Amino acid sequence: MLVVMNWFYEKTSFKEYAYDNADQYFQINKVKNCELVYTSASSNFSQKTTEDKGKLSQYIGQFYPSLAMEAFNIPATHVGTHYKLLQSIPKENHVQTVICAVNLRSFGADWRHSELETALNKSLVMSPNRPVLLNRLLVSLNAYDNKSQEERAEQRMAEWSELTLPYEAPMNSVSNWCAVEKWGDWSNPKRQLADQFIKQYAFVVDDNNQRIKDLDKIVELAAERNWNLVLSILPENIDKADSLVGPKLINLMYSNSEWIKHRYEHLDHVKVLNNIAILSSQHFTDKDFPTEHYDEQGRKLIASYVAFALRKHHSKAFASPAWSTNLNFK
What we know:
Layout: H1 2-11, H2 14-21, H3 24-31, E1 36-40, H4 56-61, E2 69-73, H5 79-87, E3 97-102, H6 109-112, H7 117-124, H8 132-140, H9 149-162, H10 174-179, H11 189-201, H12 210-225, E4 228-233, H13 238-244, H14 247-264, E5 270-274, H15 296-314
Helix pairs in contact: 5-12
């Protein structure tokens, strides 16, 4: 009876539910037939209406026209989400190489304890290779991390107050650093943006960071599945951070990205690209909050770095698109 009920649900209302609440279920079925898979958040998309709307992943694919390439296109996701999606790809697949976008900002408290995590966790329940009716039942039972917004806000504030930074007071914690007078009072937009940069990037990555544990799982999964893995550390707005906050924050950003690179670059099946500083401030489309949203040329520049790194595994399929000759590197 359960088998029949699962079959009936899968053939009737399941797809409508998945489209509305867990569309990554369909992305898994899409990427399993591709040689190249790209995992990303909103950094993959255009945020402007006056430019080529091509995705960053599509620009990478244009260097390899003979290979099928698809991306997990889910805003607000991170390597923890991407691990669960990659894990759900059926073992019978055509994947050869996974390109994993790594947002340095996602290692910080603000993103790890984001209010968006509950909705992401809920939607991921539908992804594993289990009977869809069982997955739907688990959603109904709240069998996922469903902390309230208030609980996540408390976690953020606690971390910003309690975790020690490698500087003397008042820059020894995020809370203390944000309290330092800069660019006028709280109403000054520069002051607000400077404090946001501190909240997003003032941390020290170590073994206990959940995003590192997630990356470890992706690295292990790639080895088990015999996939090549490229970890692409995305550009951050270094110029703006430096002008608003100064070298102490920049040093943390550089040292964290290099720590991540050194952790994995010795592995034979892993290539790490530290692209944190390859874009100037003009390529970042958001001006009032630190994000990894890039203009068309910024996305193409990142795509070119990734595409050239892929030649190690797919040299015979490499072909430069016409637009690549017009790139102006920093």
